[in-house]
Amino acid sequence: MSGTTQLPTPSGPYLDKGPLPADFYAFEDLLTDSEREKIESVREFLRAQAAPIVDDYWARAEFPFQLVEGFGSLGLVDWADPDSTEPRPSNLFSGFLALEFAHADASLATFCGVHTGLAMGTVLACGSDEQKRRWLPLMSRFEKIGAFALTEPHGGSDVAGGLRTTARRDGDEWILDGAKRWIGNATFADMVVVWARDVETQHVLGFVVEKDTPGFTATKIENKMALRIVQNADIVLEGCRVPEANRLQNANTFKDTAGILRQTRSGVAWQAVGVMFGAYEIALQYAKEREQFGRPIGGFQLVQDLLVKMLGNATASCGMVTRLAQLQDAGIFRDEQSALAKAYCTVRMRESVGWARELLAGNGIVLDYKVGRFVADAEALYSYEGTREIQTLIVGRAVTGGLSAFVK
């Protein structure tokens, strides 16, 4: 039997105003009224300004710089300015913010996560009062963009012990030598947080390397299949001189580095939930509009089965990260809880975007129908800020009472 050939109009997330259809258990209602209003303003900005252009920029592997001023105007991190009277937002709000960006586009979520979470988070946690006043006001307004350089060409999961970039003190300066890889925002960042090993003490220290510093070069990584909007770079440091004033005064061991990653790891789990939300909503709308055998495919049992499995994954994952954020806000969360969330949510994300692609059949691999972008980007979220295997070992060590399976 031949069916109709009618195709739905390509559409993406943000099909309607109001709450996201994927938030089936209304987790967003746990936010305060003011927090929900802020999320709604971000949602409206992304709906109007980002959603119409991200596919084009993704296809060209370019960054939409025209959005950056808008990010600043949203006041997402105004609270980080030392002169601000705004209270620090809850981890629950920050999580929903990451979800909202990833729901629109995982690359934009990554850009903001690198700038506000990794770069600004390092200055907040490890900078002196003077350094915070020097950098955070401009960073909070997105007038200076930050990057975070830890991963190296020969070291990802083993970077704690295998960090090769070196720092040597020379009077009032430090000389940095080494290489970094996969550094998001680095091709255009105004300042890059670089982690290097002090050749004298062997401790890992943090430095802010400012744009155009002699001896610092950042080369865009080409031909990526995921997060194509993110401008990842290979960084080379050759006799790069950084003043002592740019050494982060409270970043003195790798434990300080790990403390930053412990906080941002949960943000990746939230991004994974956002990707699931976005892919589910595209698939849901498609199922309502696409006709085969004279009726919308959403009326077929196997299609509904795919939708419900996606929704179940998204709902379970959102419940996990919501509880994690509550533990963070209470100050009682543990590293292994972030690790479990990152591992679990990214696995469920990878599964769910595959089902969305399956539901759209051939249209699922065409960028016009958007699901293909979510499928590709999920591959990067699955691996970055700690692979599933590393997260598993962190959790495994905790649940076995300290029996470590890490290679030493």
TrEMBL record:
Q: Which UniProt keywords apply?
A: FAD, Flavoprotein, Oxidoreductase
Among the Pfam families in the record, one is Acyl-CoA_dh_1
Q: Read off the lineage from the record.
A: Bacteria, Bacillati, Actinomycetota, Actinomycetes, Kitasatosporales
Q: Which residues form the Acyl-CoA dehydrogenase/oxidase C-terminal domain?
A: 260-399
Cofactor requirements of the protein: FAD
Q: Which residues form a coiled coil?
A: none
Q: Where is the Acyl-CoA oxidase/dehydrogenase middle domain?
A: 147-239
Top-rank lineage group of the source organism: Bacteria
Task: Give the record's family classification.
Answer: Belongs to the acyl-CoA dehydrogenase family.
Residue span, Acyl-CoA dehydrogenase/oxidase N-terminal domain: 32-141
PROSITE patterns from the UniProt entry: ACYL_COA_DH_1
Q: What is this protein called?
A: Acyl-CoA dehydrogenase family protein
